[in-house]
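Database export, one record per block. Field names are fixed; values are copied verbatim from the stored entry.
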Amino acid sequence: MRTMILNEGIRLDGRTTAEIRPIWCEVDYLPCAHGSAIFTRGETQALASVTLGTKLDEKIIDEVLQQGSEKFVLHYNFPPFATGEAKAYRGTSRREIGHGNLAHRAVKNMIPTGSEQPYAIRVVSDILESNGSSSMATVCAATMALMDAGVQLKKPVSGIAMGLISDEATGKYAILSDILGDEDHLGDMDFKVTGTRDGITATQMDIKVNGLSYEVLAKALNQAREGRLHILNCITETIPAPRPDYKPHTPRIVQFTIPKDQIGAVIGTGGKVIQDIQAKTGATIVIEEENGVGVVDIYGENKDALDSAVKLINAIIEQPEEGKIYHGTVQSILEFGAFVEILPGKDGLLHISEYDWKRIDTLEGLLKEGDEIDVKLLAVDKKTGKLRLSRKALLPRPEGMPETPERKEHSDRPRRNGERHDRKDGPHGRRDDRKR
């Protein structure tokens, strides 16, 4: 076999050294998944599915020197039937971990970060059939599945496995593209290269010779680039770009920031406030402090749940604004007025004189606890933070009613002797401690 390839350039399956096996691929292969794709190259086939989750679904990293979480994970499964074997499947092997790690590194840097991609992403690649380069088929299938799910990949990624047949005695060698399982086993090199149209994202090399010359490595990389571009053309013909939106059955997630000092108000004592919001809306809410601000992730089964949760959180962090009209709820009624909650946890006094233009002696029969009412915020006390509300300001002034002059503050009224000073001071500006 080695002599035939070196002398004639014809391989076991009749291909030339640089020729790639026929490719067939399709997206949305699993209609119920958030994203899916199948990629077949020769006798190697990979089925990839994508699941989008919340921050609670992120992979937790708890090692001696590293702690944190990982938003993107990729699982590579290689069942025995992929190579025609009939044996018990006893869990993840070292080979599966290595191939999955290679595919993970190949795609990871092409996934947006931050607010552009708030989801936790899990890709599962199941190898249905294998005759070489199943890890590279995983890269191609994962790329299409992510694009099918609506993940806005920076650039699509493809991968190819290169081989080498060499003869030390004569110095002859042949670089093989898209190697078969036998060519991997009998050859001198297994060189996996993944990348976009603009460059390489990951590589992995296994060699059985003492080393590679610069000439061989350069030729292998150039030949790998030609193969990757050919595969990328097949991928983009199937799905030219990521879908502009997620699929209808994909749960939605919204991410925004709030001031750091408002995190406690949203969470509440013992988590009471945030749990109440989740119970009312059915959404899942996660808040974390990052770079001095609170990052809020809201995950809901539908748009209504998301909008309701966002509205309730915005109401908590919103600061009362003078001159603004609020739709509030009456909390209690007293002799001199009523307390109206205009924002969650924020209520103000609606004085009896601010209820209507005409004089009224009591609010009984006009308001009761739980009534909803529109009021205008007249002023916020800068020292105490108390709110002064008015319903009268929203009503038209009756015809013929004269303008009411503004009442002066107590501290602006002069004393009888014409001097202005503190009540506690005596006539000479000193505190008067004499009994009266």
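Remark 1: Residues 214-238 form the longest helix (25 residues).
Remark 2: The chain has eight helices and 19 strands.
End of record.
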